[in-house]
Fold each of these.
Amino acid sequence: MATPSQDLDPQPLMTLDMAPFAGVVLSLLALWFVAMPRPQHAVSLDITGHCGGLIPSEAVIHTLGIDVDGTVTWNGETLSNRAALDARLQAVATAAMADQAEVHIHPHQLADFGVVAGVLASAQRHGVRNLGLIGADLEVFPSHCGSSI
C-alpha cells in the first residue's frame, strides 16, 4: 500500500480559482442588462438626403427657437400653441419644393428635451425635409462628403 508523501516544507497555496468569480460577474451583468429600462421616447429622422456644404443662396430659412421654459418662436415671433406651430410646419412642407425652404431649430442648451423631441416629431409628421438642428455650443466645420481627403 502506498503511503502519502510527507512534504517537509509545507507552504500555503498561492493561487485563487477565478472561475466562480467570473461566473458571478457574468450572471450579475446579465441581470443588469435584463433589468435596464427600455427607451420610452424616440424620434427617428432620415438625415441621408443632404451631405452638407453650402446652403443655396435662394433658400428661405425659417428659424425655430425653443427657450428654457418651452416657449417656441418662429422667426422671432412667439407661437401661442402647438396648432400654430403645426400650421407653419405644414406650410413649409408644402412649399419646400418650390422655394427650397429650410427650418433651422435653435434649442436653448437648458431646454426640455421633451419639447425639442416634440418639435422634431411634428416636423417629421408634416413632412419637412430640409431641417437643421443648430446648437450654440457646436462648431460648424465644412463638409467633405464625396471628396477624396
Note: Residues 139-149 have pLDDT under 50 and may be disordered.
Amino acid sequence: MATIEDKRREFRGLHESGCFAIPNPWDIGTAKYLQHLGFKAIATTSAGFAFSSGLSDGAVKRDEMLAHIKELVDATDIPVNADFENGYADDPNDVAESVKLCVATGVAGLSIEDATDRKEKGIYDVDLAVERIKAAREAIGQSGVLLVGRAEGFLLGRENIDQVIKRLVAYSEAGADCLYAPGFKERDHIKAIVECVAPKPSNILIGGAIGLTMKDAAEKVVAAAAGR
C-alpha cells in the first residue's frame, strides 16, 4: 500500500514533464475502477459527489466533503487531488483552516477557486483572491501537497482571456504550484494559459463544444511550453 508521502511525491513527479489525464470519480467504486483501468491519479468532483447525493453543486458542506475526500484517499493507491471549491470560506484565515483539514485527509493535491458562491456565481476581487491563495500555501506548509490555483472567470462567463491570465499569473506568484482555468472556449487559449504561467504546469478541462482530444491537448501544451 502506497503511503501518503509516496502519493504526494508521485503526484508532483507527474506534473514535472509531459501530460497525463486525471479522471473524476464520485464514489469509492468509481475511484477503484479508475485505478484498475491504469490512471496514474484521480481528482474528486464537487459537482459529481453532490449530484450522487441528490444535491446541487455547492450544496455539500465542508465536513461532508472532507469525509468524502478521505474515503477516496483511503480506498486507492494512487494520488488524489481534491476539488476543494473555494475552501468553504471567504476570509483567508478561514480558508487556511479548511486547507489544513483537507491536507490531513491524505490528499496529494487540492484546488482553491476564486468563485465566491455557486449560487451567486460571483468572483472574488483579485487582491482578496490572491490573499486566499497565500493563506492556502502557508497552511499546506511542508506537507508536499500540490496547490492548484483556479480562475473561474471562463466557467462562469464573467471574464475574458486577458482577465483570466492576469489572475493565473497572480495566483502563481502567490504560491500556487499548478494553475487551472476551466471553461475556455477557444483552442488558442490553451497556448496563452500555458505560456503565461510557465514553467509551472497547467490543468486543462477537456470537453465542451471545441471537441479536444487528449492527443490534441497534449500537442498544444507541449508546443506552448516549447514556445512554438
Note: DSSP finds nine helices and six strands in the chain.
Amino acid sequence: MILCGHSSYPRELQYAKFKAIGDEVGALTMADVSHLGGLIAGNALAIRLDVGFDVVTTTTHKSLRGPRGALILCRKEYGAKIDKSVFPDYRADAI
C-alpha cells in the first residue's frame, strides 16, 4: 500500500503521481487528507482526489469544523473488510 498525506501544513501534493506509481507497481493507494478535507471540499486548494485512490481518510473536526469524528472513503470492494476491522462485531448481513 502506498500512503500519501502529511501534517497540518496545507500544501498540494501531486496525488495523481502517487496513484500512477501505485498502479505501476500493483499497490493499493490511500490518501490521508485529515488536515485538508475542508479546504479540498471548499475548493480552497487545487487538490484533486478523483484520481482513483482505493482509500481516502479524513476527519470531521479539523478543517471541516464538525463534531469529532472521521471518514473512511473506499472502493466498494474494500468496504466490508474495513468495516470489520473498525467494528469487529460488524456483520453486513445484519443490516
Note: The mean pLDDT is 85.
